[in-house]
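Section 4.2 – Deliverable D4.2 (structural model, holo form)

The reporting period included a commitment to supply a predicted holo structure for the target in complex with PRP. Inputs used:
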Amino acid sequence: MTTLRLAIQKSGRLSEKSLSIIKECGISFRNSSKKLVAKCDNFPLEILYLRDDDIPGYVADGVADIGIVGENVLLEKEKQVALVKKLGFSKCRLSLAIPRGQNYNGVSDMQGKYIATSYPNILKAYFKDNNVTADVHEISGSVEIAPGIGLADAICDIVSTGSTLIGNGLKEVDVVMRSEAVLFSTEQLIAEKQAILDQLIFRIESVNKARKNKYIVLNAPINSVTQILDILPGMKSPTVTPLAEDDWFSVSSVIAEDDFWDIIEQIKAAGAEGILVMPIEKMIL
Ligand code: PRP
Ligand code: ZN
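Output (structure tokens):
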């Protein structure tokens, strides 16, 4: 039987979340990051644990069919692959950073400077766009220590919480690109593999939609119901069921996480009581 091979980061910022999205899709596998490959029990998928920097190359060569990496890594490696989907997690910035005590007036300050980065292609393109000529040097890891040991004037590296920069006496001065985890694939998948990928995408989308929404149930007296129904969106329309108590109803609906507190305030003011809010596991529309 055909299996789709997915490459994910072995250890790092993306590993855990890449695995959890697969698990939330209802796909189970024995999770041992000591092993290079894990076969899934209930879905035709095989997981390869690799260094994120190597993943675009392996997918381009067809060693793996699909992969999950940061957009920054995908762009940097300049491999012939197809972007399938942004995944919405592990959001970060690729930024220029300089020693904390120094001033910064804009990217032109980087003119003629020695800059250490693991993303030379992206950075060179950024400098070119900004008409800056700088000395860009590639280092594969621990870029943040370069200024402190006199190896570079500035760095360009991934920032998510910012604690790595702070810990090394640096400050973020310019955002070169924003990035998040992406799913991508070999340019031309055979039909059987494409069908498996389509199923996987369908599951990921329903997991992501569910994450962004909550299920809400509340009680309301008859004279509040119309007003509450106006406030609640709902996938189609909210469900209204009579309660055992006369003139009281139970109303249930789906609301977006973003509007959550706003809606709660409004329906409370309209007379809702006993409001329950629950996470949704999957949403198939
Ligand atoms: C990046 C970067 C820093 C860290 C920044 O590494 O190189 O080490 O994340 O995160 P912070 O702002 O939360 O402190 P990444 O996870 O991309 O790993 P890699 O370079 O080893 O692939
Ligand atoms: Zn890496």
